[in-house]
Write a structure and sequence with these properties.
Structural class of chain A: alpha+beta
Radius of gyration of chain A: 20 Å
Largest sheet of chain A: 5 strands, mixed
Strand content of chain C: 25-35%
Largest interface: A-C, 53 and 64 residues
CATH architecture of chain A: 2-Layer Sandwich
Helix content of chain A: 25-40%
Oligomer: heterotrimer
Chains: A alpha+beta (about 260), B alpha+beta (about 260), C alpha+beta (about 230)
CATH topology of chain A: Ribosomal Protein S5, domain 2
Strand content of chain A: 25-35%
CATH architecture of the largest domain in chain C: 2-Layer Sandwich
Radius of gyration of chain C: 20 Å
Order of helices and strands of chain A: EEEEHEHEEHEEEH
Strand order of the largest sheet of chain A: 1-2-3-5-4
Number of domains of chain C: 3
Number of helices of chain A: 4
Number of strands of chain C: 16
Structural class of chain C: alpha+beta
Number of domains of chain A: 1
Chain lengths: ~260, ~260, ~230
C-alpha cells in the first residue's frame, strides 16, 4: 500500500478512475481447457490481468520424501512471467511468489479429496502473463477451474477476489493504481455455498466497520465469479440432453478379448 | 519418468508408417502443422506474441531498458534471449533454473536473430559507450508438442517486429518502432528411417535419430544452423533440410508480414 | 427403476444432486444431509443411488482390472510397469508365465515393452501388483497403442460390447481394451487409421448423443468408398 491517500482515485459521484462503481468488478472472462498437454487448464482475464493455470495429476510424487502415505499433496507454483509487469522481472521464484504459492496450495488442499490418491501429487501451475493487481485471486480462480477440468475430485470450485480501501472508501477488486496508492488490500477466497474462508490476507489499515463492509462486498463478488467459473466449465463440456443407454455400465463384463 | 519412455510399439509404428511413406498425422514430409500468430498480447511488454504450431504453443515478450553497452560494441544495443521450459507445458518439464535444453533453445533462437542482424543494434545506441537499449527477449513455452525451435524462433521474431522502443517513458523523445532489417525464419527437420521430416511432433522427436534447424533470411541465405540428437545426417539429408527450410521459410515469413 | 435418469446432465464439483431422497453413490459427497457432486461429470441415477460418471481424471487400479502396461524399469526380481495411472506397478518374476532366474529379468521383458496384464492387488496406500499369469495375458507386439481417458472405456466398449464389436467388424482390426484407457490394435495401416479415428470420436464425444450412429456413419462412409 502506498498510503498516498491524497491521490484522487474516486470522484464525487463515487466513480473510480477506470469508470467503475465502488462495488463493481472489472470485466471478467474465463475459459476452461485451453492447453493440450496439461490434464486440466484454464485462462482468466479480469481487467488487465491475464492468467493461465494448468493442472497435472494426480501423479507420482517427486521428490519421494514429500509423499504422504495417506493422501495426495497439492503443490501449487504461482509465477509471474518476466514481461507481465512494467519492470522486467527476473525469471524464477522470489519470496512473494513462494508465499502466494503456499497459500493457494493450502486453499486448494481444503477442497480436493486428497485421501482418494495416497502418495501422489496434484501439481498446479499458475503463470501470470499480464499483471494489474489481483493476480493471486485471478490465479486461484483459474486454478480451481483447471482442477475441475482435470477431473480432480473436489468439494467445490473456489472463487477469489480482493477488496480494499481507496480514498477512505471501501472498494471491490482493486486495479493497479488503486493497489499502489490505496490504503488497504484484502484478498479473499470464500466458498459461496458454505461461506468458508479459504484465503485471506490483509495489509494496510481498516477499521472493523470497513472490514465488515469489504467482506460483504467480497462475498457478493465471489458469488458472481463462482457463476462465471461454472459457466466456463459448462461451455467446455457442452452436453446435449437425451438418452444414455448406449453404454455398458458394468466395466467388468467388458470383453478384453480379441475379435 | 514414465511418460518419457517411448514404447517399442509406438516406435515401431512410427517407423513402419514412415517406411510406408506416411506420417502419424497424415502430413507430407515437408508440410508444417497449422501455424497461428498473435501479436501485442501483453501490454506490459514492449512487444509480444503468442504462437501456435499444431499443439505447441509459446508466448514471447520483449522488455527494453536503458543500460550500458558491452565495451567491445560501445555503439550497439544489447540483445539477451532467454527460454523457459515451464512445467505447465509438459509433464516432463520441471521447475528450476534453465537446463541444457532451454539454454540450447535460447541460444539457437538468439543466433538466428543476431547473425541475420534482424535488429539494427546501432539504432539502439543512445549515447555511445554509455547508454544503449537493452532488449530482453523472454520466451515461455506454454504447451509442448514438439518443434520448440521453430515455435520459439517465430514467437521471438514476431514479438520483436511488434515492439515499440519506449523512449518517451525514459525521457528520450518519442517512441519509435524497433529498427528491423529482415525476418529470420527457422525451419527444423528430423531424420527418421533415413527420411527427412519437417516440423516434428513430440512423438516424432522422441523417435528421431537426428535433428537439424536451419535459419534463413529474406534472401534465402543461411544465418544459423544447429544439428541435434545423437544420430548422424548424410550430406544429402543436410541439403534436403536446407532446401526445405529456405522454401518453407518464404511462406512462414509471410505470416508475420 | 423409474428413476433411471434419461438425460445427460453435466454436473460440476459442489453442485447439489439430491436433498435426501436418494443415496450417495460414486463421485458424490454428503454434507448436512444433502448430496453434492464431488467432480465434474455426468449425473447418473441408478437403483436409488445418485452417481457422477467422470469425463476425465486418472485411472485408479482395482483388483481384477485388465490393463495395458508399459515396462519402465527393470530390477533383479521384478519389472516396474507404468499402467497409465498415478501408481506404477511392480510385476514380480513369480507373476509371469516364464521361469525367470534372479537377475535374469532383462532377458524376458525390456524397458519400452507393452504388456497385457491384470491388476493382482491394491493395498490401502495404493501399492499395486500386476500379474501376467493368466490365460491370454502376454507381451503385445506390433500394431499400435491409442490412449484415451479411462472414464471413456465403457463408451468405447458399448452396451454388451456393441460399439467395439462394430469397430472390429468394419476395420478387421484385432483390438484389446485395457480398463486403464490404453487400447492396443493391430491390422493393416489403413484399417488402424480408421479404427483409431472411430475411437477418438468416442473419446471426444463421449458425453454427446447418438454416438453409436455417428461412429457407424463414419465407418460406413469410409468402407463403402473403398469397395
Amino acid at each position: 500500500m502506498g498510503g498516498n491517500s491524497d491521490m484522487k482515485l474516486i470522484d464525487e459521484n463515487g466513480i473510480r478512475i477506470d469508470g467503475r462503481k465502488v462495488d463493481e468488478l472489472r470485466p471478467m472472462k474465463i475459459e476452461a481447457g485451453v492447453l493440450k498437454s496439461a490434464d486440466g487448464s484454464a485462462y482468466v482475464e479480469i481487467g488487465k490481468n491475464k492468467v493461465l493455470a494448468a493442472v497435472y495429476g494426480p501423479r507420482e510424487c517427486h521428490p519421494r520424501h514429500m509423499q504422504n502415505p495417506a493422501k495426495a499433496i497439492v503443490q501449487c507454483k504461482y509465477n509471474m512471467i518476466s514481461f507481465s509487469v512494467s519492470d522486467r522481472k527476473r525469471p524464477g521464484p522470489d519470496r512473494r511468489s513462494v508465499e502466494i504459492s503456499k497459500l493457494i496450495s493450502e486453499a486448494m488442499e481444503y477442497v480436493v479429496f486428497t485421501e482418494n490418491y495416497p502418495r501422489t501429487s496434484i501439481d498446479v501451475y499458475i503463470e501470470v502473463l499480464q499483471a494489474n493487481a489481483g493476480t493471486r485471486c485471478a490465479g486461484l480462480t483459474a486454478a480451481s477451474v483447471a482442477l475441475a477440468d482435470a477431473g480432480i475430485p473436489m468439494k467445490d470450485i473456489i472463487p477469489a477476489v480482493a477488496v480494499g480501501k481507496v480514498n477512505d472508501q471501501v472498494v471491490l477488486d482493486l486495479n493497479k493504481e488503486e493497489d499502489n496508492y490505496g490504503q488497504a488490500d484484502l484478498p479473499i477466497a470464500i466458498l459461496p455455498r458454505t461461506g468458508e474462508v479459504l484465503l485471506m490476507q490483509m495489509d494496510g489499515h481498516l477499521t472493523q466497520e470497513e472490514f465488515d463492509k469489504g467482506l460483504e462486498m467480497g462475498v457478493k463478488a465471489c458469488n458472481e465469479i463462482y457463476e462465471l467459473q461454472k459457466d466456463a466449465l459448462r461451455r467446455r463440456y457442452a452436453v446435449v440432453n437425451g438418452e444414455t443407454d448406449e453404454e455398458s455400465k458394468e466395466a467388468d463384463e467388458d470383453v478384453t478379448e480379441e475379435a | 519418468m514414465a511418460r518419457s519412455i517411448v514404447s517399442e510399439i509406438k516406435r515401431d509404428h512410427i517407423h513402419k508408417l514412415i517406411a510406408d511413406g506416411k506420417r502419424v498425422d497424415g502430413r507430407a514430409w515437408d508440410q508444417v502443422r497449422e501455424i497461428s500468430v498473435q501479436t501485442n498480447v501483453v501490454e506490459t511488454a514492449e512487444g509480444s506474441s503468442r504462437v501456435r504450431i499444431g499443439n505447441t504453443e509459446v508466448i514471447v515478450g520483449v522488455k527494453m531498458t536503458v543500460g550500458e553497452p558491452f565495451s567491445d560494441t560501445p555503439n550497439k544495443g544489447v540483445l539477451s534471449t532467454n527460454a523457459e521450459l515451464i512445467p505447465m507445458a509438459s509433464p516432463n518439464f520441471e521447475s528450476g533454473p534453465p537446463d541444457a535444453d532451454s539454454i540450447e533453445l535460447a541460444r539457437v533462437v538468439d543466433r538466428g536473430i543476431r547473425e541475420s542482424q534482424m535488429i539494427d543494434l546501432e539504432k539502439l545506441c543512445i549515447e555511445p559507450g554509455k547508454k544503449v537499449w537493452i532488449n530482453f527477449v523472454d520466451i515461455y513455452v506454454l504447451d509442448f508438442d514438439g518443434n520448440l525451435f521453430d515455435a520459439c524462433n517465430l514467437g521471438a521474431v514476431a514479438a520483436l517486429k511488434s515492439a515499440v522502443v519506449p523512449a518517451k517513458a525514459n525521457g528520450l523523445g518519442d517512441d519509435y518502432p524497433m529498427p528491423i532489417t529482415c525476418t529470420p525464419i527457422s525451419v527444423t527437420s528430423v531424420q527418421i528411417e533415413n527420411s527427412i521430416l519437417v516440423d516434428p511432433t513430440l512423438d516424432e522427436e522422441k523417435v528421431a535419430a537426428a535433428r537439424l534447424t536451419v535459419t534463413t533470411d529474406d534472401n534465402g541465405d543461411l544465418r544459423a544452423m544447429q544439428k541435434g540428437l545423437s544420430g548422424a545426417l548424410t550430406l544429402d539429408q543436410v541439403n534436403t533440410a536446407i532446401e526445405t527450410s529456405r522454401r518453407l521459410g518464404i511462406e512462414i515469413r509471410k505470416l508475420i508480414g | 427403476m423409474n428413476n433411471e435418469s434419461t438425460t445427460r446432465e453435466l454436473v460440476l464439483p459442489g453442485d447439489l444432486l439430491d436433498t435426501g431422497t436418494m443415496k450417495p453413490g460414486e463421485g458424490t459427497y454428503v454434507q448436512d444431509g444433502n448430496i453434492f457432486a464431488a467432480m465434474l461429470g455426468i449425473k447418473n441415477v441408478k437403483s436409488n443411488f445418485v452417481n457422477v460418471i467422470p469425463l476425465g481424471g486418472r485411472y485408479i487400479p482395482a483388483p481384477g482390472d485388465m490393463i495395458i502396461g508399459k515396462v519402465i524399469d527393470i530390477g533383479p526380481s521384478n519389472w516396474l510397469v507404468d499402467i497409465f495411472s498415478p501408481y506404477p506397478a511392480p510385476l514380480h518374476v513369480n507373476e509371469v508365465p516364464w521361469r525367470v532366474e534372479f537377475g535374469d529379468t532383462a532377458r524376458y521383458l525390456s524397458v519400452g515393452d507393452t504388456l497385457l496384464a491384470k491388476v493382482l492387488s491394491v493395498d490401502e496406500t495404493k501399492r499395486v501388483q500386476v500379474t501376467m499369469k493368466e490365460q491370454g495375458l502376454r507381451k503385445l507386439q506390433g500394431g499400435q497403442i491409442v490412449e484415451i481417458s479411462h472414464s471413456k472405456v465403457p463408451r468405447v466398449i458399448g452396451k454388451n460390447g456393441s460399439m467395439i464389436q462394430m469397430i472390429k467388424t468394419y476395420t478387421n482390426c484385432r483390438i484389446f481394451i485395457g480398463q486403464n484407457g490404453r487400447i492396443w490394435m493391430d491390422g493393416s495401416m489403413d484399417d488402424m487409421v480408421n479404427a483409431k479415428r472411430a475411437i477418438r470420436m468416442i473419446d471426444q464425444g463421449a458425453q454427446t448423443l447418438k454416438l453409436t450412429e455417428r461412429v457407424k456413419e463414419f465407418l460406413e462412409s469410409v468402407y463403402r468408398k473403398e469397395e
